[in-house]
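User: I'm putting together notes for a lab meeting next week and I want to include a structural view of one of the chains we've been expressing. I don't have a solved structure, so I'd like a prediction I can at least talk through. The sequence is below, exactly as it appears in our construct file.
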Amino acid sequence: MFVNTYALYYREYGQPSDSRPALVFLHGLFGSSVNWHGIVRQLQDRYRVICPDLRNHGRSPHAASMDYPAMSGDVLRLLDQLQLEQVAVIGHSMGAKVAMWLALQHPERVDRLLAADMAPVRYANRFATIISALQALDTGRLNSRAEAQTRLLDRLGNPALVNYLLQNLAFRDDRYYWRINLEVVSEQIHTLMDFPPLSGQQQFPGPACFVYAERSDYVDQTAMQRIMALFPHARMRMMAATGHWLYAEKPEEFMQILMECLR
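Assistant: Thanks for the context. Below is the predicted structure for the 263-residue chain, given as structure tokens.
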């Protein structure tokens, strides 16, 4: 079912019920709610699942600001609108940082947290080449998605990455356009690479699971120390022979870990 709200656009799986636990899945940078479809369709018989498009992504509104307090505020308003008092939040990459901030600032609304291949730390900007390639593509002159794919492959050389990015390419009124707000993402990429400062000794008191990829360097020993400082009940799980998009590379293993974390 596709639903449009005052703020975030979201997809809902399963039936609303007072007896069903609610799960919220948050996608990463350049992603959308579609990314989680293969995972969440396996959960819809047991849970009420909400998958929003975060601001400046997918079908959600574009906004001039894009930081983690603003994005977690969007999610909080969505929970209020859906009358969900407490949910489990699962996030990947940028979406994991949104989930972490929500858990730290509003722990009463987060039953438990699962963060996929991300830590609450600052990273170097790894996306300049991608943003440049997307901005260089004149979508108004494109004749087909195949043409866009060829041009992006020439610049990025990674078929899996290009196919992931092309999920943001839409067609309307006889022209192609990017659903993602590239201008704002480019302007605020350094904010997205960081994590907001915290006041005092803030910690999330609930259960948390941090799943990280063996072939990714997003969660190193320094990041683990920061995780444990903010999420003292966190469990760390490494997925072998996987990269940053671990839930797409090994969905069965990711699902097994997810179910363990939800119990």
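A couple of points you could mention at the meeting. The chain has a mean pLDDT of 93. The radius of gyration is 18 Å.

User: Perfect, that's what I needed.
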